[in-house]
Amino acid sequence: MSTQPKDQRLKSKALETRLTHTGRPDGAPSHAINLAPQRASTLLVNKAEDLYAPGIKTYGLQGMDVHDAAKAALCTLEKADHCILVESGLLACTLPIFTFVGAGDHVLLPGNVYGPTRRYCERSLKRLGGQVSYYNADIGADIEGLIQDNTKLIILESPGSLTFEMPDIRAIVEVARKREVLTALDNSWSAGVYLNPLDLGVDMSILATTKYAVGHADSFSGAILVKDKRIFSKLTEASADLGLFTSADDAYLLLRGLRTLTVRMQRHQQSALDIARWLNELPEVEQVFHPALETDAYHQLWKRDFTGASGLFAFSINAADDGTDLAFLNALELFGLGFSYGGFESLAINCGPQLKRSATTPPSNKPIIRLAIGLEDPEDLKQDLAQAFTSALRT
Fold first, then answer.
1. Which residues contact 155 (CB under 8 A, 6 or more apart)?
2. What would the pLDDT profile of 139-150 be if each residue is shown by its tens digit?
3. In what order do the strands lie in the sheet with 312-317?
4. Cis peptide before 159 (omega within 30 of 0)
């Protein structure tokens, strides 16, 4: 038997193996497979000298064993050295902005940015004296022309919200590094399985672990993954100043979900591509927005940087925007009508009410529907979509 610590032995193993074994008890004569959630506020120390000693946990906000295990698993997932756990995906998106963009500072956002991130910047950040500008996701290295002397952070999404534009991550990161501007990328679409932003030079990778990592639509959490210790320290300080804390139960559900993440992602990917290709051939569909689809405008960028795709994509209905989208959604039987994604169930929403764009325009003036493909049989989902088209477009 190897005398190396377990985490060292796992480094050479495949991701599926590492996610199965990382953060589990090692060396005890007998133990449960899963760590139990420890619900604690006050932590007791053994001697008075430990009350203020560095490196000793003295309050529940610092996390317990299940939090440490979840962070270790997430670091394994994204090849990170440090992880910050927070209460939601949105908080994971906004904490880097709160941390690094203050009064008089400037942040660059993609024009198709996730709506709540836009809302935070337009409302809270501006109220605190921060400045916001938007760029077209297609900008590439030309983003240098938008960087100001006070620009502290560039936010990226890959792909972008709702209509799935794909930025040239490498080109933007190269410019940002030259200009000493930090970068943070929302990596929720790939769940960290199919894209490693830190390998591409991104400073902070953001995950809405509420979605694919948890996988069962019953828990909130978010994570920020980094390699740089200085960035990690700043994020940790901001998190502590705000009193942020992911509950033990949510950390437990996150860790449990990570154990099966790669298997579920394979099924999400396979079913979504099958349905996207099927939709792409229908006369009722104007366009399918899925970067892993061979006909997508961003397919080559996806192919260069990603190793796979998730179950989330969109399409536009080949009809006037006269309530067809609502009729289509109301006719669905297997797809739930709801926000978020990444659970076992399939979901659908109409994108129009939240399709805000800056520095760019929506790719279609037709009704756009976003689908989150779950774990159901894809043939059953196709039948449901087909009957919804028939009902919505009936003359």
1. 93, 96, 97, 107, 108, 109, 110, 113, 117, 183, 184, 185, 186
2. 999 999 999 999
3. 285-289, 312-317, 368-372, 347-350, 336-337
4. yes
Q: What is the mean pLDDT of the chain?
A: 94
List CB contacts of 65: < 8 A, sequence separation 6 or more. 35, 38
Task: CATH 3.90.1150.10 in the chain: give the residue spans.
Answer: 261-392
**Phi/psi at 91 (5° precision):** -65, -35
In CATH, which superfamily holds the domain spanning 261-392?
Answer: Aspartate Aminotransferase, domain 1 (3.90.1150.10)
Domain with CATH 3.40.640.10 in the chain: 6-259
- What pTM, to 2 d.p., does this model score? 0.94
**What is residue 31's DSSP assignment?**
-
CB 286 within 8 A of CB 364: yes
Q: What is the mean pLDDT of residues 337-361?
A: 92
Place of tokens 């590094």: 177
- Tell me the pLDDT band of 322, cut-offs 50, 70 and 90: confident
List phi, psi (to 5°) of 285. Answer: -105, 125
CATH (one of 3.30.710.10, 3.30.360.10, 3.40.640.10, 3.40.50.720) for 6-259: 3.40.640.10
Condensed to tens digits (0 to 9), the pLDDT of residues 29-76 reads 667 888 889 999 999 999 999 999 988 999 988 999 999 999 999 999
Q: Are strands 347-350 and 336-337 parallel, antiparallel or unpaired?
A: parallel
Count CB atoms within 10 A of the CB of residue 44: 7
